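> call design_seq(struct)
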């Protein structure tokens, strides 16, 4: 397979799913009657917290890696990330028997840094700014010749993330809606593409913290917007959309709902208490949106992507 250079087609997503199958888990779909009663809807949770590395990121990273040539792979995989994508690139490299070079900000969660190291990656620390991440990564790439795998603004990554919604649509019949959180937009872009190709009648909504609402503002204005703060507990959603993800979401997404920090915590706690599973704060954002907007979701069959379960247990929010 060659790297993708345009918006993934249905055939691209199908080929991707087949190619990465040995590198990922087909994660379960769980339900919870108590949460259904609270929401007034039938919710089907796609549990990517049970994915390898504990997050959906394994899908996109592994697809980007397998689409490289043997010569490119031998030089290694590189990225910058504070957590889940770092782990996904590191594990993909380990499974393919090639080096991984990861740039992580100094304040990256300790648990995610430790896991990335455990997969055998060489970690380089940097200041917690996008400029520092990018400049440090460029030095690493120049030194090693490794290929940069972008966390989200990459069609290969988007095609990998699309396999999550593809599985959900295969496993649960008759869904009315899909919803997922929006950070850089890789998962959300893949989700809308799978919905359009495999279940064109399904509506797709994103959910985003009020504190980092660049995707909402970008779609409202028609131009890419940036966040002026990253002050949200949903650490996986602090990034801005990329040009590729913005383009796809502009074309396909039915809407984005915003939720407060208190609403995120309430939804996160509800899943921990009622479903007895560990999710990270970013995962709770779509459920928070469903509970906030019963007029949209009531009575519907809704697929909800739970994106990951990598929580710093020394810094629990409740």
């Amino acid at each position: 397979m060659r790297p993708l250079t345009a918006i993934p087609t249905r055939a691209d997503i199908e080929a991707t799913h087949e190619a990465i199958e040995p590198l990922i888990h087909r994660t379960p779909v769980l339900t919870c009657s108590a949460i259904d009663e609270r929401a007034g809807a039938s919710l089907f949770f796609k549990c990517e917290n049970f994915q390898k590395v504990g997050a959906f990121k394994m899908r996109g990273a592994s697809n980007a890696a397998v689409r490289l040539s043997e010569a490119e792979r031998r030089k290694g995989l590189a990225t910058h990330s504070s957590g889940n994508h770092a782990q996904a690139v590191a594990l993909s490299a380990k499974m393919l028997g090639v080096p991984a070079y990861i740039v992580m900000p100094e304040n990256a969660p300790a648990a995610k840094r430790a896991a990335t190291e455990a997969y055998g990656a060489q970690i380089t620390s940097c200041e917690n700014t996008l400029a520092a991440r990018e400049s440090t990564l460029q030095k690493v790439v120049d030194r090693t010749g490794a290929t940069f795998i972008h966390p989200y603004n990459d069609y290969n990554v988007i095609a990998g993330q699309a396999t999550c919604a593809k599985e959900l649509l295969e496993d649960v019949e008759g869904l009315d809606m899909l919803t997922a959180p929006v950070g850089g937009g890789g998962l959300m872009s893949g989700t809308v593409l799978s919905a359009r190709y495999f279940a064109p009648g399904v509506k797709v909504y994103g959910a985003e913290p009020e504190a980092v609402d660049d995707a909402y503002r970008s779609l409202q204005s028609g131009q890419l917007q940036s966040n002026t703060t990253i002050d949200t507990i949903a650490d996986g959603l602090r990034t801005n959309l990329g040009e590729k993800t913005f383009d796809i979401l502009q074309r396909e997404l039915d809407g984005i709902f915003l939720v407060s920090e208190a609403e995120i915590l309430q939804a996160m706690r509800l899943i921990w208490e009622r479903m007895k599973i560990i999710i990270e704060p970013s995962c709770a954002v779509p459920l928070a949106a469903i509970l906030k907007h019963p007029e949209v979701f009531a009575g519907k069959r809704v697929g909800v992507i739970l994106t990951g379960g990598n929580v710093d247990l020394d810094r629990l929010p409740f």
